[in-house]
Amino acid sequence: MDKLKIGVITNTFGIKGELKIKSFTDFTEERFAKGSKVELLIQDKYKEMTIQSAKEHKGMMIIQFKGYENINDVECFKGVELYINKSDLHPLKNGEYYFFELVGLTVVNETGDPLGTVLRVEEGLAHNLLRIEKLDGSTGLVPYNPAFILRVDMAKKIIQIKVIEGLL
User: Fold this and answer.
1) For residue 97, which of 64, 101, 130, 157 is within the disulfide window of CB 3.0 to 4.6 Å?
2) pTM for the model
């Protein structure tokens, strides 16, 4: 079963078993809602947990798992990653993609010549950025913006971009 990482536990918060989560999802409220299930990857095994409570605090999520009400019960979770099943993802609108779907796609120019491969999607201030590994092994950034992204073809596994001077 394919899993998708949605966050990592960075530390404890207070003494009542709450944990600080660095979220990797655009659907924070949904993924960390009370009653939601997540899986913790502990020593190469997944442990399903139910979220008892969640709130946002200074850009981090603060959550508490059902049955864990003491700091001593959760200290062992520091650094542990949180996952969901990819089958639990809801469909996006036409033309929208999850970040993980773009990784590995070939980037081509307007005429279809390959330029490189998407390594990852990075969050920028104005918009997201595609980190591209170019054919020479170096990397570059392409704004994920309609001014540069001409077409995403998931069937052909390509992203066609408009290349301007200095972009790559």
Assistant:
1) 101
2) 0.73
